[in-house]
Design a protein that fits this description.
Number of domains of chain B: 2
Structural class of chain A: alpha/beta
Number of helices of chain A: 11
Order of helices and strands of chain B: HHHHHHHHHHHHHHEEHEEEEEEEEEE
CATH superfamily of the largest domain in chain A: P-loop containing nucleotide triphosphate hydrolases
Distance between the termini of chain B: 46 Å
CATH class of the largest domain in chain A: Alpha Beta
Number of strands of chain B: 12
Strand content of chain B: 15-25%
Radius of gyration of chain B: 27 Å
Order of helices and strands of chain A: EEEHEHEHHHEHEHEEHEHEEHEH
Oligomer: heterodimer
Largest interface: A-B, 27 and 22 residues
Number of domains of chain A: 2
Shape of chain B: elongated
Number of helices of chain B: 15
Helix content of chain A: 25-40%
Largest sheet of chain B: 7 strands, antiparallel
Distance between the termini of chain A: 38 Å
Chain lengths: 311, 484
């Protein structure tokens, strides 16, 4: 990859799209730098697929400005498609096409195709090279879809929900494959509604909801800047007033549920130190302690007031 | 294309030749058809069923009728591949979502439409070749059409009906909608354009309507060339209309191509696509007003019912081995002794026949044999008959005989001709004909002739002319009996 790490491979500014009465995108703005794995995280219907399809040149934007690899996807589709690779949420190929044939066929459409044998090896399809598409498992089909997105050795890879509908083990296999994109410094945009996927794979994430970017940054930045803080869950030998716990250092809030106390603190260390001092002073005993960093899910809940999976 | 094949720069690193994407997709589509049993059956074997039904049942295996039926069989096949092989397949691919992956590649709608057309055409050619081969092999159909003209006709026909299929695929939003459109057009073309029912037997107003249908032009051009012996050039107007329609269909399919089932076509676009039928409307109006279609159809149909080799046209009629031409008047008595008249026991007294040598014969010859009589028995060949039989030995030293040929003229009554071999295990080919007052040459194929040992010890054969039809008088003149 000959990407300049300072340049933006994707530039999206005030992107708007409407389907009849529904405003799917209401002015989205973000940039993807060369070599970056960028995630669009959001619930179903947030506008992720519309955004990625506009970038692929499959849909026309109603407003805003988009450049991909320096080109306008709406006007320079054919030239752009030579330089990008894309994977659909669900890839459907003819039942009787063999894995090797599908890769060779699609590679033949490009000026600079990748080696089919290397692709099959890399995506674990060598043993299935002569298998018909209809006989592949869900995971194998998705690996083939990813391999198809790489047949032109693209500068930019656009992956739309690459693990949707797959079981946990297969998802992790796919994560390993996508992590290779980052090792190769291949610019990648993926959409997902899996928190784990965004946190594990993405250098930066844009959380998108109802057609708007509601948070943008690295997963760590988003969590650190989350007002929620670290979640500290404790069980005590003797009951304590939650109001008392709220007064501890750096504790943001505290609730009691079934005899367990859930505190949110930012940062966590002073809160734990002052909790230990309080328990010593009151001759109370700590029965159980559980500390959890906030997740992107918490960030989403904080910003929208809803859980992502409720959508 | 030549550039792609010859230019070394257009090769991949592994040496394989780069091809334009449409050709790649078309070749892959053909490969996929070969792997799908149902597609394989409907592409290659189903048309043969039609051939055997048309030629074996409708034409009774009579080569002259098979020639007439061949055009409808080919047209039926071309229509089927256009409507169902191409049209419905396009909609099905869109509904299934398999076009979406192609959409991500640097391909345009033109590439997709062209690849469908090409695959359809490339699958059509071997099917037609199989139909021709089977018609010639099993039904002894004489191929009275230049192979190049046949190729042009098939190409133009396939293009025109592919245009039909693609237009329907373009305007149908769902598979169900496409099936409705397909059925409406399909059945109209099937029954009103001479594909299933010969146009001359249909009412006059239907014949007028048939002039608006594209299948009519394909069928009638086939028949005019193969039965009437006309040239393709005589039908350039019909060819032009088919080409224009195919082009319209291709352009509509290109313009209205949709990659995904969610994309719906507007009613306005549907209305615009009705322009597809404009060439047929114009042609229909023009043909009904100025053309001589009905006379041509009638002539072709009449020739079919007379025989494929009208006198003076068929060169091979003067070849072969002459068995009996009734020319030597000294042998007249011998001839009459050789021939036998027989009647069925059930018809005794009610069926009478006699033979006489008459003058002139066919094609300017001096003599011919007249078989005439009266039959009051129940109509038909099986219950009561009168027949003239000619037993003859198979001549020695003549390889590759394929059948017997003779000239006949008659009084438009029904006759059945049978060639019976001495070996009863062999089939006795039969031909039904209604000869009129013009001499015509008729062939009765018998493939086993080539395998029979020549005499001596010899194989005797019997050629029988049996009168049929309604009770009454009959006359049949016979001349120039040959083995070919």
């Amino acid at each position: 990859m000959a990407n300049n790490s300072n340049s933006a491979v994707v530039h999206v500014e005030d992107l708007r799209k409407r389907y009849g009465d529904i405003e799917a995108l209401r002015g989205i703005t973000f940039e993807i730098k060369a070599g970056e794995v960028f995630g669009l995280l959001g619930p179903n219907g947030a506008g992720k697929t519309t955004t990625i399809e506009i970038l692929e040149g499959l849909r026309r934007a109603d407003g805003g400005k988009v450049t991909v690899c320096g080109m306008d996807p709406g006007r320079e589709q054919t030239a752009l498609k030579q330089r990008i690779g894309a994977q659909l949420q669900a890839t459907v190929l003819p039942d009787k096409i063999r894995v090797r044939e599908a890769l060779a066929l699609f590679a033949s459409f490009y000026h600079e195709p990748a080696s089919i044998d290397l692709l099959m090896e890399r995506f674990g399809l060598t043993e299935k090279r002569e298998a018909f598409f209809e006989n592949l498992s869900g995971g194998q089909k998705q690996r083939l879809a990813l391999a198809l997105s790489m047949v032109n050795n693209p500068e930019l890879v656009l992956l739309d929900e690459p693990t949707v509908g797959l079981d946990a083990q297969v998802r992790r296999d796919i994560y390993d494959l996508i992590e290779r994109f980052r090792e190769e410094h291949r610019t990648t945009l993926l959409t997902t509604h899996y928190i784990e996927e965004a946190e594990r794979l993405c250098d930066r994430v844009a959380i998108i909801d109802h057609g708007l970017v509601i948070a943008l940054g690295t997963p760590r930045e988003l969590v650190l800047h989350s007002g929620k803080g670290t979640r500290i869950e404790v069980s005590l030998a003797k009951p304590v007033s939650p109001d008392r716990l709220k007064q501890l250092d750096s504790v943001l809030d505290c609730v009691e549920t079934d005899g367990r106390y859930v505190l949110h603190a930012q940062p966590a260390a002073p809160a734990i130190a002052s909790l230990v001092r309080l328990l010593e002073a009151e001759e109370n005993i700590l029965l159980d302690l559980h500390i959890a960093q906030p997740t992107l899910e918490d960030v989403f809940v904080e910003v929208t007031g809803r859980r992502m999976q409720d959508e | 294309m030549a550039k792609y094949l010859n230019d070394p720069m257009n090769k991949w690193p592994d040496g394989s030749i780069k091809m334009i994407p449409s050709i790649r997709i078309a070749l892959m589509s053909i490969k996929l058809v070969m792997r799908t049993k149902a597609a394989l059956f409907f592409t290659f074997f189903f048309p043969l069923i039609f051939l055997f039904v048309y030629a074996g049942i409708f034409a009774h295996g009579n080569p002259q009728a098979v020639v007439y039926m061949f055009g409808p069989v080919v047209t039926l096949n071309i229509m089927g591949s256009g409507f169902f092989g191409l049209g419905l397949q396009s909609v099905m691919q869109r509904e299934r979502g398999s076009l979406r992956r192609y959409r991500l590649a640097p391909l345009g709608p033109g590439s997709m439409v062209f690849s469908s057309l090409l695959a359809n055409y490339l699958l059509e050619l071997p099917t037609i070749a199989m139909l021709v081969t089977c018609a010639m092999l099993f039904f002894h159909m004489p191929l009275k059409i230049n192979p190049l003209a046949l190729l042009v006709l098939v190409t133009v026909g396939t293009f025109a009906f592919a245009g039909f299929g693609l237009t329907i695929a373009s305007i149908a939003n769902t598979m169900q909608e496409a099936q409705v459109y397909n059925n409406v057009v399909w059945f109209a073309l099937l029954f009103l354009s001479g594909v299933t029912v010969p146009l001359p037997v249909l009412p006059d107003w239907i014949q007028g309507f048939a002039a608006f249908l594209p299948a009519t032009y394909l069928v009638s051009t086939f028949q005019a060339i193969m039965v009437n012996g006309q040239s393709l050039f005589d039908h350039k107007a019909e060819m032009m209309v088919l080409v224009i329609s195919g082009t319209f269909g291709f352009l509509f399919a290109w313009k209205l191509f949709r990659w995904e089932k969610e994309e719906k076509i507007s009613n306005r676009a549907k209305l615009v696509s009705i322009a597809f039928i404009v060439p047929f409307l114009a042609m229909g109006v023009w043909m009904n007003k100025y053309g001589n279609l009905r006379a041509t159809w009638k002539e072709t149909y009449s020739l079919m019912s007379q025989g494929p080799f009208s006198h003076g046209q068929h060169e091979s009629a003067v070849n072969g081995i002459l068995l009996n031409d009734f020319e030597n008047s000294d042998e007249s008595e011998l001839v009459l002794k050789t021939w036998q008249v027989s009647t069925d026991a059930n018809a005794a007294g009610r069926a009478l026949g006699e033979l006489e040598v008459i003058s002139p014969g066919s094609d300017g010859t001096e003599h011919a044999l007249r078989f005439q009589g009266h039959d009051e028995s129940t109509a038909g060949f099986d219950r009561g008959y009168v027949a003239a039989r000619y037993p003859f030995p198979l001549p020695a030293g003549v390889p590759n005989l394929r059948g017997v040929q003779f000239d006949v003229q008659g009084d438009t009554r029904l006759f059945q001709v049978t060639l019976t071999p001495q070996d009863s295990s062999l089939p006795a080919p039969t031909l039904t004909l209604i000869p009129n007052s013009a001499w015509q040459t008729v062939r009765l194929p018998a493939a086993w002739l080539a395998t029979l040992p020549a005499s001596p010890p010899g194989n005797k054969l019997v050629l029988e002319f049996r009168a049929g039809g309604p009770p009454g008088d009959f006359t049949l003149d016979i001349d120039e009996i040959r083995l070919y």
